[in-house]
Amino acid sequence: MPEIQLPEEMWIHVFGFLSERDKLNVRLSCAYFKRLVDHWSLWKDSVVVLQKPYDSHFWKTLRQRKIKSVVVKRATTKVLQQTVAWLPWIGSVTLLECNDGTALVTLTALKHLQRLVISQCCCRSLTGSLLSLRQLTHLCLCEVKRASVSEIRAAISQLVNLTTLEYHDDKNPIHKSALHGMLGHLPNLKHLSLKLGPKYGILPDDYFCPTKANGNPGVTPDAELGLSSLELLNYEDPCLSSLAFNGLSSLTKLAVHYRKCYKNPDLCCLTKWLRRLNVLSELSVSLGYPLEAYAEWIPRTVQRLSLMRVQATLNSVRIVGEQVPDLLQLQLDLFCLDICDLITEVPHVFPKVQILEVRHHNVPESVFLQLQRLPRLEQLVILDAPESPSPTVRNLTQKLHVQTNNRIHVLHSNSKDQTACSCGFFYL
Predict the structure, then answer these.
(1) In terms of CB atoms within 10 Å, which of 17, 20, 373, 423 comes out highest?
(2) Model-level pTM?
(3) If DSSP states are collapsed to H, E and C, what string results for 134-169?
């Protein structure tokens, strides 16, 4: 028992401010703190990575914490059986590099499972397993082995509750008729993510427009995709034409992650897509064409903007500022020669930004500290800060806290979602 006598509720509240590593260290100090640290409220958003069979003490701890999200890596059926037995309320499962073809069948016992990610796994019974998981709202299939497009289409078409579908396999493309037939059975689908590679070739103008998909069961002649979010991975023009977004007028979120950087702005279809997106509120672009190719076409409605590894000039950034004066969240990770001038300009160009993500390398401290001039800035993410902050970064953080009276919350790294498909990590 600790010397300081406080109610358990107060200790639990204090522990809630600790990082996961610090909580584990506190847990080792005494039996009393061990019990309190394992309180479920301190782990409700945590993710556990499973790689082998574990003893009962391990599972009892997870059960006490009411863990709801697990990542199972290179696991066997036995690990999944243990997961189902000890944590039957699991809501999110990510399977990574699992070569046990029958392992997926075990998950059919999870009646509360809503989010399933299958990445680089061997799935011999994909259709049968997914048919027993009709409650799924989020499904990601990434390079699934031994599963044909026809089988995948048949399985997904039964998951009528899906709101998010991610299909990341550029070697096994979904052609237009298959896509239309599949999406026609998903009335609740809002987010679609596709990894497009060379094998997709040049897609028809109406690839995202089921209005011309007559003859497909469940698709009416006047149907239009009700998507609000679209993500394109590994993209390269001219896979999709300038007319590809004609049936996507309801998009509020668009992410285009190009395969590499390109120099010729005349080939950029993004400019034409953006002209049709009148309600877009979030735009994310990585690599691809220089910012000046599409800066003036970014819709004024955009409030969250992410530019990763994009070639840019100070003038093109100023154009963006004129286009989106109400921007609230900004990630600037640019290939820019005048990075110091860019940092200096940010408070003038984006005065309403509340969340900002930038790099600090090669930026003098005196210049970086000028970001405190952003009057509404609440959170600053230093993208290139090491996992264990260096003395330089700690000193910089301390000065920002002091000079803004702790108005700005500084994060030293942008943590990745362990439960997400690893495809997108390349672009971060």
Answers:
(1) 423
(2) 0.88
(3) CCCCEEEEECCECCCHHHHHHHHCCCCCCCEEEEEC
